[in-house]
Structure formats: C-alpha cells, structure tokens
Amino acid sequence: MKAVAYNIKDYEKESLAIANGKVHDLTLISNSLNFRTIHYAQGKEVVIISEDDYLDAELLEELQRAGVQKIVTRSITTSHIDLLRAYDLGIQIANTPYEDRTPKGIAEQTIRNLNLWGSGKCVGRACCCAKECNVMDPNQLKNDAAK
C-alpha cells in the first residue's frame, strides 16, 4: 500500500522501517497533517497520523479528494478524528490498541493494520470504523484476544 506517515519523530523512523520490511511504499515526514501539508497525501491510499493531528470534517474531505481511503492513528484514542464524517466519506479508520506502547510496538501495530487492509481483511480490534465489517478472519479474533 502507498502511505504517508505524518508527525514522525526521529525515534519512530527506524521502528517503522523495520516493521515495514519494504512491503509498503511508506513516506515518513515530520510535519503534522494540516491544509499546508496535505499535498503529501496526494495519491496515497493510507495516511498514518499521531494523536497530535486533528482531522475534522473539512480535512477529511480534502483527504478523500486526495485519494486517501484509510487512516491509521498511532494512538489508542480516536478523539482527534471526526469518525462519523470519515464513515460518511467511506474512509476506514484504525488505531493501535495493543498494550505495547513502545515505538517498536506501535510501529508493528501500524504495519499490521496495513498488511491486513492490503490483503482485504478487517483490522480486528484496531478497527474504529462506524460500520459493521463482515470480512474479519475468524482466526483474527483469536489472535486479537491473545494480544
């Protein structure tokens, strides 16, 4: 998948690169996501954000116009994203809900979401969409329960 990750800190770069293993086309930038930096998302399927990026209805609409179909937040919370507007726009949202909050753990969760989406599957417990998903792999529920 083609993705751009915003608000990347120096200590996150290596973890994301290692977790990705050159599978996805990742662009890592240190800027936050806003109207001045949205051009980095042009032509990307996925935007990866932090909890410091605020995605209101207007910014989500611009992301959709740029071609973004999915958003991963490198946080547990999604209060910084207008989830209802994302749902209306057909943008899928995932977070990183597992206990390992180290840069390595968050990077692995982020790439796991990309891998699952890339293979047409639901991201399981990381799904923050407002819709019902019927593409979840039955084994995934077991794996999610074990994490």
Your description of this structure?
By secondary structure, the protein is α/β, with parallel strands linked by helices. The protein is 35% helix and 13% strand. Helix 1 packs across helix 4 (103-118). It is globular. It starts with a strand and ends with a helix. This is Lactate dehydrogenase. Keywords: NAD. Residues 8-98 form the D-isomer specific 2-hydroxyacid dehydrogenase catalytic domain.
- Structure summary, number of beta strands: 5
Instruction: Write the H/E string, N to C.
Output: EHEEHEHEHH
Q: Reading side by side through the largest sheet, how are the strands ordered?
A: 2-1-3-4-5
Mean pLDDT: 90
Per CATH, the class reads Alpha Beta
**In one word, what is the shape?**
globular
Oligomer designation: single chain
User: Which bin fits the share of residues in helices?
Assistant: 25-40%
Class from secondary-structure proportions: alpha/beta
List the helices and strands and how they pair.
Elements: E1 2-5, H1 10-20, E2 25-28, E3 46-49, H2 57-65, E4 70-73, H3 83-89, E5 92-94, H4 103-118, H5 138-146
Parallel strand pairs: 1-2, 1-3, 3-4, 4-5
Helix pairs in contact: 1-4
Describe the structure in brief.
It contains 5 helices and 5 strands. It is of the alpha/beta class and 147 residues long.
Keywords:
147 residues; NAD; D-isomer_2_OHA_DH_cat_dom; D-LDH-like; disordered C terminus; Rossmann fold; globular; 35% helix; five-stranded parallel β-sheet; Lactate dehydrogenase; alpha/beta
